[in-house]
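dumping this here so i dont lose it
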């Protein structure tokens, strides 16, 4: 009887030990799966970015709707107490807005101050990627430039002199 009881206790401990080890292994598998999915998603996003050509207006005096839809509109706001100025960017000019869908979106927006990169934002394709706001030190800056990438229609930019 004593041997049976010891044998049953040993089996219970063995099962508990195997279960606990399997639980850790399951957690590791879950983490590996998440990492694998993230890599897959990033790879798929890169596959959706099909145009990295630098684009420009055919006629700067008369831009068409397609060109206006890809133009970053830059608005310089007020300076705050810390000396930083709000810079708002909206993709699309003269009321023509760029879409933001899983298949067609603005994948990045970069702000330059006097031709030096200040801030780069990489946008996922599941968000509203057509606006951005920056706080930047503009004292002494002469030019603000914004460059953006449309995953389908290339790289567009606009700049303003201060």
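and the seq i came up w/
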């Amino acid at each position: 009887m004593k041997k049976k009881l010891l044998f049953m206790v040993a089996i219970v401990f063995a099962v508990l030990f195997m279960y606990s080890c399997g639980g850790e292994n399951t957690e590791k598998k879950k983490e590996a799966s998440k990492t694998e999915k993230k890599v897959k998603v990033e790879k798929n996003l890169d596959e959706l970015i099909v145009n990295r050509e630098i684009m420009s207006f055919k006629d700067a005096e008369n831009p068409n709707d397609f060109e206006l839809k890809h133009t970053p509109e830059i608005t310089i706001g007020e300076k705050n107490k810390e000396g930083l100025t709000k810079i708002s960017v909206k993709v699309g000019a003269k009321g023509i807005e760029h879409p933001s869908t899983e298949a067609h979106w603005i994948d990045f927006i970069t702000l330059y101050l006097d031709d030096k990169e200040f801030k780069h934002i990489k946008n996922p394709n599941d968000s509203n990627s057509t606006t951005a706001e920056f706080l930047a030190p503009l004292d002494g800056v002469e030019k603000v430039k914004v460059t953006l990438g449309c995953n389908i229609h290339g790289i567009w930019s606009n700049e303003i002199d201060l």
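The CA atoms of residues 63 and 112 lie 23 Å apart.
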